[in-house]
Design goal:
This protein is α+β, with helices and mostly antiparallel strands. Among the domains are: 14-47, no CATH class; 63-164, no CATH class. Helices cover 26% and strands 13% of the residues. It is built from 3 helices and 6 strands. A 6-stranded antiparallel β-sheet has the order 4-3-2-1-5-6, covered by helices on one side. Strand 1 and strand 2 form a beta hairpin.
Length: 195
C-alpha cells in the first residue's frame, strides 16, 4: 500500500516522528556542506592570484610598461621618460625612481616609435599558462599595444628596462615539500678523465 495524503501517513520528504529530518532537509544540508567546502578550497587559491599593480607618475611624453604578473610572479609598472628617467612600482611596494643606461633607453624609444601606432601592432601568439602566464603592455601617446609578452622587440625592451632597474619578479615564496614526500640527494658529477 503506497503512501498518499489521504492515508494519513506522513510524507518521507518531510520526515516522520521517528526520523524528524526528511530527504529534502538532508539534501539541503549536503548541498550547503559542499558549498562551504568549495569556499574553503577556493579562498586560498583566490588569495594567491596576481595582485593588481599600482599606478606610477608618468613624465610628459613618457611611456608606460605594464607586466601584469601571475600567481607566482610579481608584476610591475614602469614609466620611462624620454631622457631615460624611470619610475616603477610593484604590488605592495612604494614608487621608486631610477635612471636607465643610455643604450637601454635608446633601444626602448627607438622600438616604441617604430611600433606606432601601438594599437595596430601585430601581436605574436603563443601558448601561456592561465595561472602562470604574464601579459606585457606598452602605452605611449594615447596608444596601447596588445600583449607583447610572446616576443618581439618591445618584449625584449621591457625585459631590458626591468633588468636595468633591478626589478625582481619572483615572489620568493617557495612551496615546501610535504612532510612525508620522498627526497632524493642530488647526484654529484663524476669527474671525467682526459685521454
Amino acid at each position: 500500500m503506497g503512501l498518499t495524503k489521504s492515508s494519513g501517513a506522513p510524507s518521507p520528504l518531510r520526515g516522520t516522528p521517528e526520523e524528524p529530518h526528511g530527504l529534502r532537509e538532508r539534501y539541503v544540508c549536503v548541498i550547503a556542506r559542499m558549498f562551504f567546502a568549495a569556499l574553503v578550497v577556493a579562498a586560498p587559491i583566490a588569495a594567491a592570484a596576481a595582485s593588481p599593480v599600482p599606478y606610477v607618475p608618468v613624465p610628459k611624453g613618457g611611456a608606460v610598461i605594464l607586466n601584469t604578473g601571475s600567481t607566482n610572479t610579481l608584476g610591475y609598472r614602469i614609466s620611462v621618460g624620454q631622457d631615460g628617467s624611470a619610475n616603477y612600482v610593484q604590488p605592495g611596494g612604494a614608487v621608486k625612481s631610477g635612471q636607465l643606461p643610455a643604450a637601454v633607453a635608446k633601444n626602448f624609444w627607438s622600438d616604441v616609435r617604430a611600433a606606432m601606432p601601438l594599437s595596430k601592432l601585430h601581436r605574436q601568439m603563443c601558448m601561456k599558462s592561465v595561472s602562470f602566464g604574464v601579459s606585457i603592455y606598452v602605452w605611449w601617446h594615447g596608444e596601447r599595444s596588445g600583449d607583447v609578452s610572446c616576443g618581439g622587440s618591445l618584449a625584449s625592451d621591457a625585459e631590458a628596462v626591468a633588468n636595468a632597474l633591478g626589478i625582481k619578479t619572483m615572489q620568493g615564496r617557495l612551496i615546501p615539500l610535504m612532510p612525508n614526500e620522498p627526497r632524493r640527494v642530488m647526484p654529484t658529477p663524476t669527474p671525467t678523465t682526459s685521454p
